[in-house]
Every structure is written in structure tokens, then in C-alpha cells.
Amino acid sequence: MPKTIRELANELKVSKQTIQYHYQRLPTKNRQKDRQGTNMISLTAERIIRDKVAKPLVANNQQTGSKKETKTSEENNELIATLRREVADLKSQRDKQLAAKDQQIEHLTKLIDQQQQLQLTTVEENRELKAHIQKTSDLLETSGTFQKQQNNTSEEDVYRNRSDKKWWHFW
Predict the structure, then answer these.
(1) Does the residue 157 lie in any domain?
(2) How, if at all, do strands 31-33 and 3-4 pair?
(3) For residue 32, is it within any domain?
(4) Residue 23: closest CA among 47, 45, 55, 56
(5) What integer best gives the mean pLDDT of the chain?
(6) Rounded Cα gap, residues 42 and 44, in angstroms
(7) Residue 149 placed within a domain
(8) What is the CATH number of the domain that holds 34?
(9) Residue 33: helix, strand or coil by DSSP?
(10) How far apart are the C-alpha atoms of 90 and 122, rounded to whole Å?
């Protein structure tokens, strides 16, 4: 669980400035802030800071008793276990994200395929409609020519019939 600079300083029995100094020199990926903007120290960052702060203390104290070695070994084992859990969690999150992305890609691929099929169907229907319009247009032209011929013929008949019925034909 992330700690504040003050919590870690109290735990290591050093000043806040010492922790702040080491925190500022961490890579940016190891630095984080909470919602209020307070610097928070992750487990990885804590391990790095502990190593840097603990080295000078060991050199100054020159105390390497079996109790201290056992405590450091236990802390290292704890830290290793924590880091392994973090790595496993991160891998799990990554796998979930990849699976979600795979599903999105599959869905989008299906949508594109459906869109292409619809477009092909529309193009085919447009061709059929154009062919139908052309046939209808040809039929209209043919029937229009036929009607003109019929009209011409009927006008000639009317004219002939009129000419046959002149007033002197009635006597």
C-alpha cells in the first residue's frame, strides 16, 4: 500500500527531507500522487528509497549482527513476494486489456464486413434499377412512336372523311 513521505520517514527514523531528496531523484514512472496532489510512495519506490537510506546507516553503524541480517533478509523476502504479486497483477490487467481490445477488433471487423456487403447489395440494386429504367424508357419511346403513327393515321382518316362529305355530295 502506498505511503506518504512522512510515514516512510517515521518508519525509517530519518527526516522528511531525506526521503523527499531520494523521492525527487526517482524515475518519473516510480513517482505518483494521490487525488489531493500529495506525493505517494509505491512499494517499488519504497524499496529503492529504503536501499539508499539503509546503506549509509549500515556504513555509519557498522552493526552487522545476525538479528539485523535476518530482519533484512525477511524484508527482502517480503519485498520480493510483494513485487511478484504486483507483477502478476499487472500481467493479469494487461491480459484483460488485450482480450478486450481483441473483442473490439473482432466486432469492428464484423461491422466493416457487414457494411461492405450492404454496399455491394446497394450497387447491385442500383444496376438493376438502371436496367429497368432503360427498358421502361425504350418501351415509352416505342409506344410514343406507335402513338404518333396512329395519330397520323387517324388524322388522315378524319381528313378523308371530311373531304368525302362536301355539300354537293348530299344532292
Answers:
(1) no
(2) unpaired
(3) yes
(4) 45
(5) 81
(6) 5
(7) no
(8) 1.10.1660
(9) strand
(10) 48
